[in-house]
Specification:
This protein is α/β, with parallel strands linked by helices. Helix content is 39%, strand content 28%. The protein has 2 domains: 158 residues, P-loop containing nucleotide triphosphate hydrolases (Rossmann fold), CATH 3.40.50.300; 68 residues, no CATH class. It binds adenosine-5'-triphosphate (ATP). The site of adenosine-5'-triphosphate (ATP) has 12 residues, from strand 2 and helix 1. Adenosine-5'-triphosphate binds next to strand 2 and helix 1. One of its GO terms (biological process) is L-amino acid transport.
Length: 235
């Protein structure tokens, strides 16, 4: 069953037609990746889902409900967590406070603690740095905090916008491993990546987006083995 479905989504920034009739879906339990070059429309696709960009036409359905025009704060509460490009953690807040911000709507202290333990399970490193200010962490650690903060909201789907950006190869490796583990333990994931090879390796399915249009769709392995994909995105 699809947890998320975009149908004929058209989105604009003023006169720029950024998404031209996008159709994608994500099934429960999948990792779906969206790959494409700079400016192809990957981030905009995530923004139309989280409500930061309202499509001019088309529909976004989440768990069967029309959320096309839903503002971001409502979307976040309804089970969609969006980890934006560049992570955007709060630099002056401690790691603990950053995590708590992810669960701001949760009143149950025990539930917050349980979710925090869950975050520590994936990111033991984060547990060691709880009292450190976010801004003093390395890029990889900040990405871990950003994903941890998203998990604190108890999402049904996790959307990650270029989680590997700007990180050293060994850290990228770790981040992909954790994304894979999160999925194996049940999390549905929509992953935007420039790092196409690694994203396709862990994805059940992938979409190739080019100048606002979906050009190809297939299993992660089929796309990795496709000559056009190889030449354009894996070289
Ligand atoms: P990147 O990896 O560079 O973020 P992307 O695939 O995520 O690329 P988008 O950021 O979705 O691409 O951009 C899609 C198109 O919309 C591009 O032509 C981009 O220049 C344009 N665009 C994105 N954000 C804005 C904005 N705030 N105002 C005007 N144009 C924008």
């Amino acid at each position: 069953m699809s947890i998320l479905q975009l149908t004929d989504v058209n989105a604009y920034y003023g006169g720029i037609h950024a998404l031209k009739g996008i159709n994608i879906h994500v099934d429960k339990g999948e990792i779906v990746t969206l790959i494409g070059s700079n400016g192809a429309g990957k981030s905009t696709t995530l923004k139309t889902i989280s409500g930061q960009v309202i499509p001019k036409t088309g529909q976004v359905l989440f768990e069967g409900k029309d959320i096309t025009k839903q503002p971001p704060h409502i979307t976040a509460l309804s089970g969609i967590a969006h980890v934006p490009e560049g992570r955007r953690i709060f630099p002056r807040l401690t790691v603990r406070e950053n995590l708590e911000m992810g669960a701001f709507s949760v009143k149950d202290k025990k539930l917050i603690q349980e979710r925090m333990e869950r975050v520590f399970h994936y990111f033991p490193r984060v547990k060691e740095r709880l009292d450190q200010r976010g801004g003093t962490m390395s890029g990889g650690e900040q990405q871990m905090v950003a994903i941890g903060r998203a998990l604190m909201s108890g999402p049904h789907i996790l959307m990650l916008d270029e989680p590997s950006m700007g990180l050293a190869p060994i850290i990228v490796e770790q981040i992909f491993e954790i994304i894979h583990e999160l999925n194996r333990e049940g999390m549905t994931i929509l992953l935007v990546e420039q790092n196409a090879y690694q994203a396709l390796q862990i994805a059940h399915r992938g979409y190739v987006i080019q100048t606002g249009e979906i050009k190809m769709v297939g299993s992660g392995q089929d796309l990795i083995n496709d000559d056009i994909v190889k030449e354009a995105y894996l070289a």
